[in-house]
Description:
Elements (H helix, E strand, L loop, with lengths): L2 H9 L1 H10 L1 H21 L1 H4 L4 H5 L6 H4 L17 E7 L25 H4 L23 E4 L4 E4 L12 E8 L5 H10 L9 H9 L9 E5 L25 E3 L20 H19 L2 H23 L7 H7 L9 H13 L4 E6 L8 H25 L6 E6 L3 E6 L10 E4 L3 E7 L6 E3 L1 E2 L6 E3 L2 E2 H11 L9 E3 L2 E3 L15
Parallel strand pairs: 1-7, 1-8, 4-12, 4-15, 5-6, 5-7
Antiparallel strand pairs: 2-3, 4-11, 8-11, 9-10, 13-14, 16-17
Amino acid sequence: xCQKHENLKSNNKDLQEIEKKLDRRNFLTQTSLGLGAIALCxxxxxxxxxATSYTEAIGWPDNDSLLKSYNKNRLGLPHHVPKAKRVxxxxxxxxxxxxxxxxxxxxxxxxxxxxxxxxxxxGQRLTAMSAEQSNFPMAPSIFNFKQxxxxxxxxSELLPHTAEMVDDLCIVKSMxxxxxxxxxxxxxxxTGNQLPGRPSIGSWxxxxxxxxxxxxxxxxxxxTKNMGGQPLYSRLWGNGFLPTEHQGIQFRSGKDxxxxxSNPENYDGHDRKKMLHYLGQLNSLQYDTYGDPEIxxxxxxxxxxxxxxxxxxxxxxxxxxxxxxxxxxGEDSREPGTYAANCMMARKLLEKGVRFVQLxxxxxxxxxxxxxxxxxxxxxxxxxxxxxxxxxKQRGMLEDTLVIWGGEFGRTVYSQGxxxxxxxxxxxxxxxxxxxxxxxxxxxxxxxGQTDDFGYNVIKDPVHVHDFHATLLHLCGVDHERxxxxxxxxxxxxxxxxxxxxxxxxx
Length: 507
């Protein structure tokens, strides 16, 4: 420790002693840790508590050699052998229409304009946008469907590229959520709770595992530029009550991918490391005084930002990508910030060791003009979705990368507003919608779940949002009931007090 630090510490000694005596947090932290250590020793025996390794302390069964070979972290993760080392989540904000893309319902063609039977609707909650309708005329999809691949999965003409990849997809047609409006539904899908303030999926994985690349964040978010639609808030990729270093970092298109990362004008940055050194000393004193873990979390962010000044320009530079890769993702991939470009960027980030990449693409909320809106959305996304799977596959990464595609809910079979032979709108529908996954640990060419002839109710193998989260964590080597964080007197987890692993989709 340098002399300046010693002098500073000496001058503040009396003040620190007074503050420590008055600091309730410091008292509770120290006493709880002390009592906790005593209790832990009594339960595990001292020789186990102070074992040289986590595996020695736990005592893995002799036949669990593969899991034993993993280097356990401070939380004892992974709980079991993970199939997915990394995750990319292609979130389609607004609620894509499963009836026009994946959930083929041929019997509806003979029911055009007929009122949806009460026996099907079953008094389910409606949004304010269609609750006042006098009738609910059924709107069969105007798009043609056909079967693809060895799996024979049905896909519509809107998906010419992704349809070719169905034998790599695990299509879940029986998704369900509790929320019918966008903001709580998106929040629920991203954090496991409809109310703001909980950690997002990526933050939980960051907290559980940390980073495989110390020069890049564990959790990065990309948003398609210039897209209208339901608003997206930074809390959707926020850390909630977890330490702040676990929040998602948004990468933007343009000159400054990360805000406030570049040096100010006319500053060469040569003394930045020295500045962080002295700032660290000051914060160390602050931590010694108050014991607030957020002080260390903030320092970790400063240090990451310093390393990112070099790593971010390198990873966001796409000039080394060959032309055939751009061609595979589509012409839009040459323009930074587009969905296609973000899919390419996601692959590059995953290659660099980023554990969780979240893409957001807005504009799927087709209350009116559904056919026209869907055509436009799939023109922007379909080729890039298929290309990402191909790209990961050709690099040998798909086998341990989990790819997820889906929105916050689905759309109704009945038309919102005027129904014609060529046009209709669809309202929100939380009780049955489609998502797909590909890659690490899920069955390729598999269709899970089934809806009724109207695409309105799940009749086989329902998958709730909590079940989806439990399964995602399971594929990453996590028991969703054991990854918890104590906050305000109780232990929280991503799946709250619900959720079960969907074993039917596991390979």
